[in-house]
Amino acid sequence: MKIKKILAVLLAGAMMLSMAACGGEEETTTEATGEQKTIDGNVLDAEQYFNGYLSSEPTTLDSVTGNDTYSSTILTNTMEPLTRLAEKDGENVREGAGAESWESNEDGTVWTFHLRDNKWSDGVDVTANDYVYAITRVLTPETGSPNSWLLTCIKNANAVLAGEMDPSELGVKAVDEKTIEFTLESPTPYFLSLTDTRVMMPQRQDIVEQYGESYGAEAANLVYNGPFKLDTWTHNSELILVKNDQYWDAESVNLQTINYKIMNDENTIFNSFTNGSIDSCGCGTPEWMQKFEAMDNVDYIHYTSPAVRFNFYNTKDELFQNENIRNAFTLALNREDIVETIYHGTMSAAYSWVPDGVSVGDAGIYRDQVEEPLKAMVESEDPKELLLKGMEELGLGDDPSTLEVTFSLGGVDQWMKNYGEYYQQTFKEVLGVNVVLDFNEWGTFQSKINNGEYQMGYMSWSIDYNDPYSMLAVMYSTSGNINTGWVNEDYDALLDQAAVEMDDAKRLELYKQAEEILFEEGPLCPVVNEAANTFRYSYIKNSNTMPFTSTGLKYAYVSGRNA
Amino acid sequence: MIKYVLKRIGYMLITLFIIATATFFMMHSIPGDPLGAMANKLPEQAKANYYAKYGLDKSLTEQYTIFMKNLITKGDLGESLKYPGKSITDTLLTNSKVSGVTGGLALFFGVVIGVTLGIVAALNKNKWPDYLVMFIAILGITIPVFVMASLLQYLFTVKWMILPTTGWGKPKNLVLPVIAMCFGTIATYARYLKSNMLEVMGQDYILTAEAKGVSRFHIIKDHVLKNAFLPCITILGGQISGIFTGSFVIEKMFGIPGLGFYYVSSINDRDYTMIIGTTIFAAALFVVAQLLIDIVYTLLDPRIRVK
């Protein structure tokens, strides 16, 4: 049996080579027997399935009313956005999905998408109206969509959301069955990076109206136009996706079934991975990581996620109104030590607000071109001196041990307690300041922060779309996202300029200047960048390894599961 | 008797009403709201539209009136705020069935095995079977259920690979959770029944029966067990209502789609309708179980009679 398999692999490999020699463009070949398919020299197993897990039940599969990552995972695989971000040779490439091609006018305010022929899982043709309908739904106030703000770049969106204008006046319309035209409020450089997110996924008006509030609450209460369709949804237990034969690119889809179990107990997840019940798992626990790394049929996929864990200061607070004091606390941390002690090397130290991996259009990865601002500061400044300087400015004397600072955290578990104690100790050792820890359950924490009843807090923030603007806009003075009370007119002005700057290089320069201001004044203290630590059995091929990729499991296949 | 039951049902309804009202105002007094628990990113307009959709922009008394009106006139607990389109009543019914099956089996095996062991221990007082049973009972009471569950999971699904790690719908999915859950019950009943039996066996009427020459088998069956069982019924009542509300830990570990999850998550999510739905459900089960227990008591124990 083994020999036969090896022979098959060799044969297939030989065929691939000969095909390449002939200059054949096809990546996929089918053997003469018509049974075994080969991709990149790998013979595909007869049974093509993927077993994954979700840490929580998706709230709803209505792309408009939900906004959790679990439902997004399902939607990426079952719905066809206008475009998708694929991976090619270690880089992200935007490819047509629901749209075959697209273009914009010169100043980037009008975008036209040309749809390809595609069908819904019930056989009905996908039309431009399906996309326009869903987008309009996002922006209709009565829908109460938590994602609406992402689309406020569309003309009249703000007025419609405020109920001052009828949704029919939105800058999105179906020109004909296959053409969608977007008119934007002003040039929006990151507009394309919204076209593969859930806010622009299509919905069928007749189905939404048929099911009303329960649209998307059950597998049968919606139709699909993506690579897969949801077949079974046992709430809080399992979701089973099967290949969608009506899909326009069904030929490229290899998996026949995807099983997502709902699991959120660490031991259960790791036990399931060990015994092969799931094919992939995220793991940041050292003992388990060692165990998985020792398994020779497992790949370790590690990349920085565009998410930052950070401390932040209440700039309205008596003490933290002073920028030297804020910077003293920011520079007092030894980020490399935090990575080792708290995260066991699974995350990476953050010296900037815009994380690695985020790109500025065609100008490339932002962080490759802009030095992380905190790095220079760590080398040139002494935190203790900054603190004393700040205390002098505030007339607080020169004894840091007279200060008492409250550090608020949004969690009450053991991890959070250890985390807080680490900081308490660091600030005591480096600055000589006494820190009081204030542990709160998440809801309470949020309301404290929003009411400004805190001095220093801890949170994490993940990016919403692939442009530094998504991170920097969080600190725009009117955004209210993180209630630091920080206001800087120059910062706002730079962002206003960047928001409409279609020239990528110029935009990058504006972001750089804005980020510099942010760190000079220091309302935020980035600590680490989150990272994906995924272990995956190596028989799963062609599945994603980059943070912004939005092809889901469309191109994945299985080769050698039982070998 | 009927009058007594009707009166009790009347009290039950009042109790439930008070519980619902108290829960309503208590949960709204915890800081935070469903949207905050979901994301903090939203601009004012998006938040306002969301609140308006779920009626959270109205005053608390107005929200309370609407809630009570729907509950009393339609028996409608509303829709989850976290899971749009999911009716609370449906969720309670579907998921409590799942919890009921797992918990019911665990309770059944727990009681049967526990009672048997208890009898064995009582009849062999201070001999090795007694020590063995008490050893098991002490383990059952002291080992936390999640430790037991982890151990079982590791042994059966990773080491020996004979049972599935998680899942629902097949009988083999039930094996591990049921074992893990019934272990504590076994221990409780074994200890309880043993001490009750020993107590009864020391009573004068047992001595009388022995003096009259009643066989040991009949003494145990007709006199000892009957009396020793009575106090067990009290704890059984609480447990029966508990099986439908599920076990958070066990359900989480074995991927059982029961109700336990919602009791914990709804509070963290500030899913108001779900919080109140699950609370009323648990309260209703509890008061009904208490009523049934009291009725059963009057049937079993001639000393307790309702006038």
Oligomer: heterodimer
| Shape call of chain B | flat
User: What distance lies between the first and last C-alpha atoms of chain B, to the nearest angstrom?
Assistant: 7 Å
Largest interface: A-B, 59 and 54 residues
Give a verbal description of the structure:
The complex is a heterodimer of chains A (563) and B (307). Chain A is an alpha+beta fold. Helix content of chain A is 30%, strand content 22%. Chain A has helices at 2-21, 69-78, 128-139, 157-161, 205-211, 266-274, 286-293, 323-331, 335-341, 366-369, 373-380, 383-394, 414-430, 442-450, 468-472, 489-499, 504-521, and strands spanning 28-30, 37-39, 42-43, 49-54, 83-88, 91-96, 99-104, 110-115, 172-176, 179-183, 228-234, 238-243, 257-262, 280-282, 298-313, 348-349, 404-409, 434-439, 456-462, 524-537, 540-541, 557-558. In chain A, α8 (323-331) packs antiparallel against α12 and α16 (489-499) runs antiparallel to α17. The longest helix of chain A is centred in the first third of the chain and has 20 residues, at 2-21. Residues 1-33 of chain A have low confidence and may be disordered. Chain B is mostly helical and 307 residues long. Chain B is flat, with a radius of gyration of 24 Å. The model of chain B has no long low-confidence stretch (mean pLDDT 90). Chain B has helices spanning 2-29, 34-38, 44-53, 60-74, 88-123, 128-142, 145-159, 171-201, 204-211, 216-245, 248-254, 260-269, 272-300. Classes of the chains: A alpha+beta (563), B mainly alpha (307). Chains A and B meet through α6 and α14 of A and α2, α3, α5, α7 and α11 of B.
Please sum up the structure shown.
The complex is a heterodimer of chains A (563) and B (307). Chain A is of the alpha+beta class and 563 residues long.
Descriptive key words:
heterodimer, A: 563 residues, alpha+beta, seven-stranded mixed sheet, four-stranded mixed sheet, 17 helices, disordered N terminus, B: 307 residues, mainly alpha, 13 helices
Secondary-structure map:
The complex is a heterodimer of chains A (563) and B (307).
Chain A: H1 2-21, E1 28-30, E2 37-39, E3 42-43, E4 49-54, H2 69-78, E5 83-88, E6 91-96, E7 99-104, E8 110-115, H3 128-139, H4 157-161, E9 172-176, E10 179-183, H5 205-211, E11 228-234, E12 238-243, E13 257-262, H6 266-274, E14 280-282, H7 286-293, E15 298-313, H8 323-331, H9 335-341, E16 348-349, H10 366-369, H11 373-380, H12 383-394, E17 404-409, H13 414-430, E18 434-439, H14 442-450, E19 456-462, H15 468-472, H16 489-499, H17 504-521, E20 524-537, E21 540-541, E22 557-558
Parallel strand pairs in A: 4-13, 17-18, 17-19
Antiparallel strand pairs in A: 1-2, 2-3, 5-6, 7-8, 8-10, 9-10, 11-12, 12-13, 14-20, 15-19, 15-20, 16-20, 21-22
Chain B: H1 2-29, H2 34-38, H3 44-53, H4 60-74, H5 88-123, H6 128-142, H7 145-159, H8 171-201, H9 204-211, H10 216-245, H11 248-254, H12 260-269, H13 272-300
Helix pairs in contact in B: 1-13, 5-6, 5-8, 5-10, 6-8, 7-8, 8-10, 10-13, 11-12, 12-13
